[in-house]
Specification:
By secondary structure, the protein is mainly α. The chain contains 5 helices and no strands. 7% of the residues are buried.
């Protein structure tokens, strides 16, 4: 490889390397902090699941899901979109946010499953006690 080609190659490589390192989207002034973004996206996932299972409850209580989330977290739709767009321009950061959301949802699912098991156990004990009480009553003269 000639020295001219090597210099051109090095120049192209460094140009490419530094252009990849520059930010494609400017950081918005009202950027939602990463932890709050995780909370918002977690709530959005829960609301989306609620909408798909029983939207009537939301309608009957006059709840507009996105407006509810924005008010709960003290943000507006523009701030959310700008922050989401900014984080999406940083793939590693964006993946970390969604990984954290997924972990929270999984932890919540496990908690709910445990609660359900506990409640099912309590119901089984109540049914057994009711059957036993009925047997005792039936055996009395």
């Amino acid at each position: 490889m000639s020295s001219i080609m090597r210099n051109v190659f090095c120049l192209l490589f460094f140009t490419w390397f530094f252009s990849c390192a520059e930010k494609l989207v400017e950081k918005p002034d009202n950027l939602i902090p990463k932890e709050k973004m995780i909370e918002i996206l977690n709530d959005m996932a829960i609301i989306t699941a609620a909408k798909s299972t029983n939207i009537a409850i939301l309608r009957n209580n006059s709840i507009e899901p996105m407006q509810f989330i924005y008010e709960k977290h003290g943000v507006d739709s523009v701030q959310f979109v700008e922050s989401d767009f900014y984080y999406a321009s940083l793939p590693i950061e964006y993946e970390a946010i969604y990984t954290a959301v997924e972990a929270r949802l999984e932890k919540e699912k496990e908690r709910i499953d445990e609660e359900k098991k506990r409640n099912d156990s309590i119901e089984n004990v109540k049914r057994k006690a009711a059957r036993d009480l009925k047997k005792i009553k039936d055996s009395l003269p």
